[in-house]
Specification:
The chain is an alpha+beta fold. It folds into two domains: 228 residues, Alpha-Beta Barrel (TIM Barrel); 75 residues, Sandwich (Immunoglobulin-like), CATH 2.60.40. It has six helices and 19 strands. The strands form three sheets. Strands 2, 3, 4, 10, 11, 14, 15, 17, 18 and 19 form a ten-stranded mixed β-sheet that branches. The longest helix is centred in the middle third of the chain and has 13 residues. The mean pLDDT is 95. The structure holds zinc ion (ZN) (2 copies). One zinc ion (ZN) binds next to loops. One zinc ion binds next to loops.
């Protein structure tokens, strides 16, 4: 049996936000205000990821929300996008200062002059050398299909849902994820708010199987021990005897995705699917990986991370 990492061991699923902005850059709420908003939404942890301005501070320790140190970094293409320049935005998430974070509080970075992934990579390595892990942000908004970011090394995840992009009517149902997974690149999927104001807070989040401290959460994220959601809950996901099995909160649709195969769907008109099984690796088909998405009665989606079978 192969069980997806989020559901191994004693589950303590923490709800977290990995991407938001405050008055430290172009957000509407102060760090204290946004922390209180997320605490009221039931979050256990939050990364305050202002544009190119690093944060290590817990601005409201009394409310008991764990703060993951972080920032959103980006390039400034020398050429216009029409002329071949590409837009790269990167979430940086790191440990506490005393555990080796190479960034300083309030450290400001200038946008790097990189037009493409080859030119952007050295700047990504600099972030990794500071003990931060990285995420490819909003590839749809950035207009970077996989062929424009697939050579980037060291990103443990990509955003598959970004509420700010959804607000601007962009397709956010994990577009591009299967295309890049299908190329053998093991990358996890993250749902985020990218909240610049209060109305996006609580739109998309991660549920992480971890103890509630910065180091444990970062380790769990890095090994894919989480799932992403805009609403539904997922309780288990595993492959046993060539059958993929999922348990979740009541759903109208449960879908099995894999790049080289058609998406297969279980439907319920009563919106009460809580379990589904998909047979894999029949004589005709052999799966490299499988992942599941769950859609509820309100069309809200949750996404498992993949189980890699090869
Ligand atoms: Zn961005
Ligand atoms: Zn952002």
């Amino acid at each position: 049996m192969i069980r997806q990492q989020a559901f191994i061991g004693k589950n303590q699923m923490l709800k977290g936000g990995l991407h938001c902005h405050t008055t430290r850059s172009d957000g509407a709420l102060s760090p204290e205000q946004i922390m209180n908003v997320y605490k009221d939404l039931g979050y256990d942890f939050l990364a305050i990821t202002d544009h190119r301005k690093y944060n290590l501070t817990n601005y409201a320790p009394e409310i008991g929300l764990t703060i993951i140190p972080g920032m959103e970094y980006n390039n400034a293409p020398r050429r216009s996008i029409a002329d071949g320049g590409r837009c790269f935005h990167t979430l940086c998430l790191g440990p506490l200062k005393e555990n080796g974070n190479g960034f300083e509080q309030d450290q400001e970075c200038i946008p790097c002059p990189a037009d493409n992934q080859e030119e952007y990579q050295p700047y990504l390595y600099e972030i990794h050398e500071k003990n931060n892990i990285t995420v490819v942000n909003h590839p749809v908004y950035s207009k970077i299909p996989p062929s424009y970011f697939e050579k980037l090394r060291g990103n443990f995840a990509m955003e598959i849902y970004n509420a700010d992009s959804a607000l601007h009517n962009m397709d956010t149902d994990a577009q591009y994820w299967d295309e890049i997974l299908g190329k053998g690149i093991k990358i996890y999927g993250i749902a985020s708010d990218d909240a610049h104001s209060i109305h996006l807070c609580g739109s998309g989040w991660v549920m992480v199987n971890s103890e509630n401290n910065v180091d444990s959460i970062l380790k769990a994220l890095f090994k894919g021990a989480f799932y992403s959601s805009c609403g539904p809950e997922i309780y288990d996901f595993y492959v046993k005897d060539n059958v993929a099995v999922i348990d979740c909160s009541p759903a109208s649709k449960i879908r099995l995705h894999s790049d080289k195969h058609v998406t297969r769907i279980h439907h319920s008109e009563d919106n009460n699917l809580t379990h589904a099984e998909f047979e894999l690796n029949t004589v005709e088909e052999s799966y490299d990986y499988v992942r599941i998405s769950v859609v509820d009665a309100n069309e809200k989606i949750a996404w498992t991370n993949p189980i890699f079978l090869k």
